[in-house]
Amino acid sequence: MQRRRKVKIVATLGPASSDPDIVAALFEAGVDVFRLNFSHGSHDDHRRNVETIRALERELRRPIGILMDLQGPKLRVGKIKGGTIDLVEGAELRLDLDTAIGDVTRVSLPHPEIFAAVQPGSDLLLDDGKLRLRIMECGDDFARTEVITGGPLSDRKGVNVPGVLLPLSPLTEKDRVDLAFGLDLEVDWVGLSFVQRPEDIAEARRLIGGRAAILAKIEKPAAIAQIDALIESADAIMVARGDLGVEMPPEEVPSRQKQLIRACRLAGKPVVVATQMLDSMVHAPAPTRAEASDVATAVYDGADAVMLSAETAAGDYPVESAAMMNRIAARTEADPLYRALIHALHPPPEATAPDAISAAAAQVATTIKASAIVSYTTSGSTAQRAARERPDVPILVLTSRVATARRLALTWGAHCVHTADVSSFQEMVQKACRVAAKEGIALPGDKLIVTAGVPFGTPGSTNVLRIAWVED
Does the predicted TM-score (pTM) go above 0.85? Predict the structure, then answer.
């Protein structure tokens, strides 16, 4: 089942899409990686979803990626008398650690780390940014604020602290329990929420111990300030535009998205664009034209993957949403302007043998009109360097590690095949030709560019390029 596009699709499973038939239909419609959102659902729900995905994988003999998305810390106000109060612009509101029921004059904010980080003049955003408070005075256990943007405030609404680095680990106790559970299920990617600094990723990596790759979700402006270090520390990046759009002005988000995609492409790390991409399809059978343009823009920019959230998890048209995203992506990549833009953003190769081989492979494939670049890889690094070049042809990835094949389901242009290892270079070339023909990527007489690292099994040792012909 070869995709006719190079950008990948991530889809969230939920109540609308947990049935095995729906999961299969989503994969058929174009989904490459399934996301399990641990902010919702029970462990039993997630276990059933993993079992469904792996059964489908065995049936189709196609590696499928699974992303577990951790909830991360949730900052919320406490309970309010009557369930709701109305905040009036210009009024004062006291926030404190007292867990007593709140009213129109004071509300509980049971997060001492917020009071430790803010100062007079700092803003607090409530209920996804609908309400704005400005701190006039604060201490270790309170803040006296002025209502800048008023409106109704209900129990347990979320709090955002824009522009402030909070002394919080991204891993709560719930996340640690969820992480251990997900690793036992052998998920392929761990989505890390509330990332602010490289140390956050290091903490998660110690717990994961190499059992899954880390996708750092960029949700806070504080993370953007350290983005190069975060990209280096993580295995992939998600542009989580919903949370970014709360903590920074909406007009800032598009340029940040482009900057993040560019930075990830330079580093050769996968980058996912997420949040509200086809949001109207939660309840409508077709997207708005603006949403179609939004998906296309991410593809034009060179993102590795685009993501569906509520559209597939809780929407009325989960399969139609995936099929629509697939069509938009395929049509965008068919546009001659797409190749021009991808090449215009082309990063120069780094001064390493793997980058030299990968850059040469892309150039030779174009020059001789090869059908594909074949990358033999154990860790996945050979395929990722090939994807960094954004070649005009598919990247056929052959690996003896199923975990590597599943992780690379997130990588641009990678068509992964789990296959037995090879013992010689000649066997490698022969297998590349056989698999390319079997997968429908090449026909007899077509040329392939084969890259690998010799000796085999040494991560990051790509040092061989070979032109091969597919025989009858």
Answer: yes
